[in-house]
Every structure is written in C-alpha cells, then in structure tokens.
From TrEMBL:
Family to which the UniProt record says this protein belongs: Belongs to the outer membrane factor (OMF) (TC 1.B.17) family.
A molecular function (GO) term: porin activity
Organism the protein comes from: Inhella crocodyli
Cell compartment(s), UniProt: Cell outer membrane
Keywords associated with the record: Cell outer membrane, Coiled coil, Membrane, Signal, Transmembrane, Transmembrane beta strand, Transport
Signal peptide as annotated in the record: 1-22
One Pfam family this sequence matches: OEP
Protein known as: Channel protein TolC
NCBIfam families: type_I_sec_TolC
Amino acid sequence: MTHPRSLLLSLLLTAWLPAAQSQDLAAYKAVAEKALATSPEVTARWNAYQAALEGLGAARAARGPRVDLRAEAGQERFNYDAAPSSKLARSGASLTLTQVLWDGLGTQRDIERSSHERLGRYFDLLDASETTALEAVRALVDVQRMRRMVALADENVAEHRKALQKIESRVKAGVGRGVDLEQAQARLALAESNLITERANLHDVVARYQRVVGEAPSRQVAPLAPLDAQLPATATAAVQQAVGQHPAIRAGVASMQAAEFAVKTRESALQPRVEFRARTGRGHNYNGLEGRRGDSGAEVVLNWNLFDGGADQARVRQQAALLGQASDLRDKACRDVTQVTAIAYNDMAKLRDQIGLLQANTDAIERARQAYRQQFDIGQRSLLDMLNAENEAYTAQRALANAQFDRALATARTHAAMGQLTQQLGLSRQTQDEDAAGWRAGDAAPARCPALPPTLDSLL
C-alpha cells in the first residue's frame, strides 16, 4: 500500500517538471526542484489547496437533493384503563428525499465563496513555491560565495606565509630587522583568523542549504550566471508587472472576494427557506395496531426564522469585519511586493554598475601589488608597504566576488518579486487550477498600493 506522504511527495514532484533551458540555469534549477519537492511549507500549502478543492465540492453538493434512509426495530408496551396492557414488536424503514427550492441564494453564494477560497489557496501554493525557489537559489549562491571567500582567505594566508619566509631569511642573513619579523607574524595570524572565520561562515551556509534543499551541496557546481533574461527595462515596469501577477497579491484578492461572498452567504440566512420533501415508509405494528402498514407523502415546507436573539445579524457584521480585514491584508501584500520589487531591481542595477568599477579597482590593485613585491625585493619598499598591498588586494577581491554573487542573487530576487522565478528557472507546473489561467482581479484590485517605485532624482 502506498504511504500517504509518499503519494503527496510524488504529486509535488510531478507538479514541477523541468522545461527546456540553457545550461547556465542547470544548477539553479536542480536546487529549486529539490527544494520544491521536499519543502514542508510547500506541502502544507498543497494540502490547504486540496482541502479547499474538497470544500468547493461540498458546497456544490448542497444544490442536489438529499436522500436519507431510516430503519428501526424495537418493543412497544401499551397500557389502557379499559383493557389489559399489551406489548408489540415494532419494525420499519423509511426513505426521505429533500430538495432545497429556495434558501436566499445561500447555496450559490457559498459555492462562489468556496471557489474564490480555492483560488486563494492555489495562489498561496504558488507564492510558497516562489519563496522556496528563491530560498534555494539564495542557499546555492551563498554556498558558492563562501567557497570563494574561503579560497581567497586561503590564498591570502599563503601570500602572508611567503612574506614571512622572506623576512625570516633576511633576519637570519642579518639584513632584516626583528620588528619586521614580528609584524609579518602578526599579519599572518590575522590572515589565519580570517580563514577560520570564513570556514565557519561556510559551515553555516551549508547547514542552511541542507535545511532548504534537503541535502548537502555537491562539491562541483558550475559557475553561477545572473538570471538576466526576461527582466523589464525599468523599475516601474517591474513593479507594475509584479502588482499584476504576483501570487501573494492574487491570493489576497481571492481571499477578499471569498470574504465578500461569505457576507452574502450570512445574509441569506435572514430569508425564508423552502424545501420539497417526499417520503415513503413501510413497517409492522405501529401505534399499537398489529399488522403491516405503509405510508407515502410529498410536501413543500417553508421555514423562516423570525427571531434568534440577533445571532444572524451578528454573524453578518462579523463577516463584514472579516471582509475589511481581508481587504487590508490584500493591500498590505501589494505594498510588500512593491517594496521588495523596487529594492531588488535597484540592487540589480546598482550592482551591474559597481561590478565594472570593482573589477577595475581589483586589476589596478593587483598591478600595484606585483610592483610592490618587486620593489620590496630590491629594497625600494618597506615590509609594511608590501603587507598593506596584500591586504588591499585581498579586500578588493572579496568586494568584487561579493558584488558578483550579490548581483546573481539580485536578479533571482527580482524574478521572485515579480512572481516568475520558477518560470525563469524552467519549472513548469503540471497541476493548474481550472480558473487560474484567465483570472483577473477586476474591481477587487488593491486600492492602497503605490504603483510607482521611488527614484533618486526625486529624493536628492
């Protein structure tokens, strides 16, 4: 027998199928695919969506007739003043059909509510998938970043050891000063301390990678390229696209629409309820009369609650307050998405400009370092000059590497902020909600959401 969790994971695995893509995205796709298949948050949203689907099915079932079968058997004792008591064995069965003819449109409104709730849970699933894919990409980028930091720190230690060996040779030859040896040893100790720190940082990001992806990172990973494809030309276009398609905003809109129909469903309880009922039954020895009996009947029943202490009106007001809450949460989601998109896009553009400058800075410092080494060997530079040049080169290399990894992450953040990271990674969803493709917010679009990102020209 298939274990329920194994079945769930297999459904999630088939829900995210790799599509054709370039090899540059292979590493990103691999970790995102694994994270989506094993993430507890994604599986929780999946189960919430499945529950909403079943809830919609239950709401639709209320439109049909209800058929109840009743069967009974027992003993009855009868006492009469003018006759001796008697006891009869009674048994029978009845079949009742009930069809709602009018309920103030309560059933139809509940179906609409359940349909919007289903869409809301589906968009929640997509939002969790985008978030999980971004966390997987972030984990991969950080692992690669810290591997690079460890390599640079290790190289820095090696260069300081070479410098120390040169000073030791000079001191032994009597042409060097003891203070230079102390200074070289101090710089080497600092470089080794930095290496220990970078190794500890690598351990931490590997632990986070295992939490997000579900397994340890592989030793060999292809170089990570920024996800530059299909990015808007301006921050304004990115924000507008995010507001129009981000699943978190769509989930907020769908939840608000569900709350609107929840109010209408509660209002339906204030109207009369009309039902058609048909019944047929057979039995033995009923009402103290021996023998078989049968009865059938059909009727239309009106039931209208005239007073219940104001409970129905209170429930309507309760749902109206929940509608206001859903509207606020929708607008909050829109503001959050707008902020995240604007920041991610600005980071991406800023880092693109910075990388060129940092590359030029690194190249210039590397040339200066080589010159300082040669000049130190012929006595034209002091040990402090050479060690400072080594530290400057190390710092410049770290800054350049961090900017390169930050830009790769910023492009992924921008795609995720626009709700298209999984699509960009080549992960297509096999499981599609029947109404999601043509869904539009319409009049339920966020009302309190800035449409345009800030610009520096307007602030300076």
